[in-house]
Hints:
Elements: E1 11-15, H1 19-30, E2 34-38, H2 45-58, E3 69-72, E4 83-88, H3 94-107, E5 114-116, H4 123-126, E6 136-140, E7 150-154, H5 161-173, E8 177-181, H6 190-206, H7 212-229, H8 232-239, H9 241-251, H10 263-270, H11 287-310
Parallel strand pairs: 1-2, 1-4, 2-3, 4-5, 5-6, 7-8
Antiparallel strand pairs: 6-7
GO molecular function: 3-hydroxybutyryl-CoA dehydrogenase activity; NAD+ binding
Domain 3-hydroxyacyl-CoA dehydrogenase C-terminal: 187-285
Pfam family, one: 3HCDH
Amino acid sequence: MPEDSEPPQRHAAIIGFGLMGCDIAAIFLAGGWRVTAVEPDRANWPARLDRVALSLSQLGAAPARVDALDLVAALEDVGFNDAEAVIEAVPERLDLKRQVFAALDRLVPAGIPVASNASGFRITDIAEGCATRDRMANLHFFLPAHLVPGVEVVKGEHTEDTACERLAAIMADLGRVPIRVARDVPGFLANRIQHAMVREAFNALDEGLASPEDVDKAVRFTFGMRIMGAGPILQKELAGLETQLAAQATIYPSLCNRSTPGPTITRLVEAGKLGAKTGEGFWEWTPESAKAARERYERMLLAALELLRREG
Length: 312
């Protein structure tokens, strides 16, 4: 190779190019990678490219990096031979994910890790019947993927450690925070912790303990701020474990341990009141107010991300 030539760009393939796929692509593009993404509906391509350009700008990368993105309509058009990672981000349907993985099992050369971004389905179930399931893992990003640095690397029942190690190393190289999850359980790690909190939050509404506004204030302006500085284990370590033990003994008996969704959220969903997307949930929404709320949310995440970067 001549001295003045540049090394070839590393290549990632993303299968499925909705909001999550676009933001995952932006992470790789911002890190200098070349990305091939599969979006069967060509009519969606302009909007998808606009989203990637916006996400790149939020990451402080040149929107022109979108030129390193190659959109194709079919899996067979990807060119997997030089890919270092393949990430599936199709809609959350087990039958669809299994169909995609069956094709990737056949099309992706051996040794290249294949990951799903499923948020609920286990990689063990998605990769069922695949001959190369030992190189298949879950790589779980959190919306908005380009602004939330944590990424779970979940080992399936048949996944080899080397596949997880390679995916974790790629994420770390891209400035993400890989979170290793040793067993393939529903919800993985972060969502299990989050849903325990959310169950209690919604139970507070069910019992009339507080309004939606005050529930959100209680989280955002108390332990939500503390958790950003130190996770729950370290925070309690710093405060003193004996204090935590005493609090557990007092509070745990009265906590919600419902094994099914509560009545308030069930009633809203059954009425078609799904939140901002339908114009009504706990609050009433217009397209303008929903857009403003999302923009404010992303500004807060960007500010938090910058603070986390400064603190290492």
